[in-house]
Amino acid sequence: MRRFFVTGNWKMNNTIAEAKALMAAMTPELEAIDSVDKAVAPSYLAVPAIAELCKGTGIKVGAQNLFWEESGAYTGEVAPAMVAEVCDFVIVGHSERRQFFGETDETVNQRLKAALAAGLHVIVCVGETLEENEAGQTESVVTHQLVKGLEGITETQAADITIAYEPVWAIGTGRAATPEDANRVHKDLIRPLLRQQFGEARAALMRIQYGGSIKPDNAAELFAMSDIDGGLVGGASLKADSFVAIVKAAAMVTIVEHESKK
Ligand code: PGA
Q1: Which domains does the chain have, with CATH numbers?
Q2: Which residue's CA is minimally distant from atom 3 of ligand 1?
């Protein structure tokens, strides 16, 4: 049976006080949903407070980025061991990092390796821009991002990796990919690439999240697709009721899939 993985990416939102209030508002309901893996990624400064609140709840807490060097003269950066001290996971290669902060496939790969070495689970983001999509370059762009991003990663290490497919044109725009289009990329492009590198068994177990304008009203139809194994949720994770509704949608799909297999 599939186990969905739904992550709230809070991006650069919420002071520590606001983050704590948001977490407190959604923890009881999230905690009650056992059948879905739930996670939040607050901004760095709020991470320790949120990790404290999530202790014993089963809700995972992660960072939105990290640097690959162990320590030293890198003003403003956070090292893998520092992240691992507080976090369960880290997001790398988010399109906003690529677009605004010079992230490349090579630096994604460096961050990924350093994060895995520090014992973190890693959500690796890929996705094409609107121009690339309209130029029919989705396949080549996503292939390049994945092949380069995952270069040198072994099958064993892949157990600690989740892929997030986030078409850039769908992020924060209210314009989600259709479930069918998203699933096509997951099933016919990303999963086969994972199979090629890590083998059939590992690729089948790896989770591929969809990200880009997931909302309570489109979550169930996205999660119902064969190869959409959860979501990386931005805007809708900033409100307790909408994030809870999205996690509930994943739980519902789990029940439906379980029943249909009987
Ligand atoms: P969105 O963001 O849900 O606001 O579109 C998704 C993401 O960038 O992780």
Answers
A1: 5-260 (3.20.20.70)
A2: 234
